[in-house]
Amino acid sequence: MAGGALPPVSRRRQLQGQSGWAGLVHNKRVFAIAVFASLGGLLYGYNQGVFSGVLGMESFDNRMGDAVSNATTKGWLVSILELGAWFGVLCTGYLADKLSRKYTILLAVIVFCIGVVVQSAAFKPSSIYGGRFVTGLGVGSLSMAVPLYNAELAPPEVRGSLVALQQLAITFGIMVSFWIDYGTNYIGGTGATQSEAAWRIPIALQLVPALILGAGVLFMPFSPRWLVNQGREDEALAVLSRARLQPPDSDLVQIEFLEIKAQYLFEKETAALKYPQYQDGSFMSGFKLGFYDYLSLLTSRTLLYRTVVGSLTMFFQQWTGVNAILYYAPAIFQSLGLTGSTISLLATGVVGIVMFLATIPAVIWVDKAGRKPILVSGAFIMAGHTGPCAWIVVAEIWPLSIRGKGVSIAASSNWVTPTMMKNLGFGTFVFFGVFSFLGGLFVLFMVPETKGLTLEEMDEAFGSVGLAVADARRQEAINKSIGLSAYDVDDGHEKRDVDDSDIKEEA
């Protein structure tokens, strides 16, 4: 169910603030909330990075035996987390809409902690397999829920930067995990004398930021867009007022609130017209409406375009090979002649620092330069990987009514990852290089630029402004009924009346 077109020119555009670092400082409350929520990204990154070092520790090899020495089972020790994350992110779409973005983050943290405890206390490979799968469920859920939450709380001029904080936190977690592995590698000595604490401690340390996030999320606000979708409009207005540091009756807060409400009312009315038989509020009707929401991602022409853009953007981001580097970095450096686990872990730590530093410019400039230039340059030159902008695009392109479901489907392609290091050798990196180039071409020609747009204006970016006449008139009526049209201003743009030439086919 695509959202309706908002007034083409509005006073909100005049009130929109600065982007970049100045915009983040101006929106200090939202900035602080997004930084804290991005602890979920730190967990994601730390978990990705820490296991690469653990795999190379002799005490871990001795404890797990053939599970580590055999290439196939070693690959499964790594990829079982990806499988759990894929399943977790698919489930999160429903949970984020049903429970709220906030409580979905809390649930994901609880699941994550269970998996970490199982791994930390593991004495057999089966415990590592099970623990990593459960941890993956939490990681996958966090990887989707955190950018979704940040996107819905952020003002449009800094939304890219705030969502990209998730990726900065991921690279920070990776960097920290690499150096913790390097430090704990010395516990009990090296080689045969190494203590099992060398690998149990870095795994268990994940619980610290997880518990902080789990406790702190209880004090964070609900997403204002989720609140509107639940009919809790007074709460949504209060959240927006506090987040924007403006009184509830200010133009800035009122316009954003009315834009969100207008899209919600349009989508609710559209659902009632398309599925009148499922409007009784029963569990079964709600289930069927949810099913048709998922189905609309493939059957609606405008939503299918967004599904393709979101899924392939994440797919190409993953197939740049960044996860292969993260999981097998010590082994890669050993194959290049850096012998000894200590030297390879040191080199891996340097990689972590480079990745973290390379992400910072994208966070600061993504709302000034735009999503496409950073995505394309990242794919073509690989100065840093394209993660920040990929997650931004996936989090912001969906209509309110299906945003959770849309993000979950698109983000799931991030967890479809190959295990080819042993089989292809150098050819693996040639393969990844080809996909990086193809990903750059895809973004260049297929992905629209979304910087500066509100979440409610994404229809314009995706070419679905030309609604059928009846839909456009319904949208205009809704805008007038709630007072949104009163904020239209004339700055030289011509506002056309709706006529038959505007009719476009809508699935």
From TrEMBL:
<feature type="transmembrane region" description="Helical">
    <location>
        <begin position="129"/>
        <end position="149"/>
    </location>
</feature>
<comment type="similarity">
    <text>Belongs to the major facilitator superfamily. Sugar transporter (TC 2.A.1.1) family.</text>
</comment>
<feature type="transmembrane region" description="Helical">
    <location>
        <begin position="161"/>
        <end position="180"/>
    </location>
</feature>
<dbReference type="InterPro" id="IPR050360">
    <property type="entry name" value="MFS_Sugar_Transporters"/>
</dbReference>
<dbReference type="InterPro" id="IPR005828">
    <property type="entry name" value="MFS_sugar_transport-like"/>
</dbReference>
<feature type="transmembrane region" description="Helical">
    <location>
        <begin position="341"/>
        <end position="366"/>
    </location>
</feature>
<feature type="transmembrane region" description="Helical">
    <location>
        <begin position="75"/>
        <end position="96"/>
    </location>
</feature>
<dbReference type="InterPro" id="IPR020846">
    <property type="entry name" value="MFS_dom"/>
</dbReference>
<protein>
    <recommendedName>
        <fullName>Major facilitator superfamily (MFS) profile domain-containing protein</fullName>
    </recommendedName>
</protein>
<feature type="transmembrane region" description="Helical">
    <location>
        <begin position="103"/>
        <end position="123"/>
    </location>
</feature>
<keyword id="KW-1133">Transmembrane helix</keyword>
<feature type="transmembrane region" description="Helical">
    <location>
        <begin position="303"/>
        <end position="329"/>
    </location>
</feature>
<keyword id="KW-0472">Membrane</keyword>
<feature type="transmembrane region" description="Helical">
    <location>
        <begin position="30"/>
        <end position="55"/>
    </location>
</feature>
<dbReference type="InterPro" id="IPR003663">
    <property type="entry name" value="Sugar/inositol_transpt"/>
</dbReference>
<keyword id="KW-0812">Transmembrane</keyword>
<feature type="transmembrane region" description="Helical">
    <location>
        <begin position="373"/>
        <end position="394"/>
    </location>
</feature>
<dbReference type="GO" id="GO:0016020">
    <property type="term" value="C:membrane"/>
</dbReference>
<dbReference type="InterPro" id="IPR036259">
    <property type="entry name" value="MFS_trans_sf"/>
</dbReference>
<dbReference type="GO" id="GO:0005351">
    <property type="term" value="F:carbohydrate:proton symporter activity"/>
</dbReference>
<feature type="transmembrane region" description="Helical">
    <location>
        <begin position="200"/>
        <end position="222"/>
    </location>
</feature>
<dbReference type="InterPro" id="IPR005829">
    <property type="entry name" value="Sugar_transporter_CS"/>
</dbReference>
<keyword id="KW-0813">Transport</keyword>
<feature type="transmembrane region" description="Helical">
    <location>
        <begin position="424"/>
        <end position="447"/>
    </location>
</feature>
<dbReference type="Pfam" id="PF00083">
    <property type="entry name" value="Sugar_tr"/>
</dbReference>
<feature type="domain" description="Major facilitator superfamily (MFS) profile">
    <location>
        <begin position="33"/>
        <end position="507"/>
    </location>
</feature>
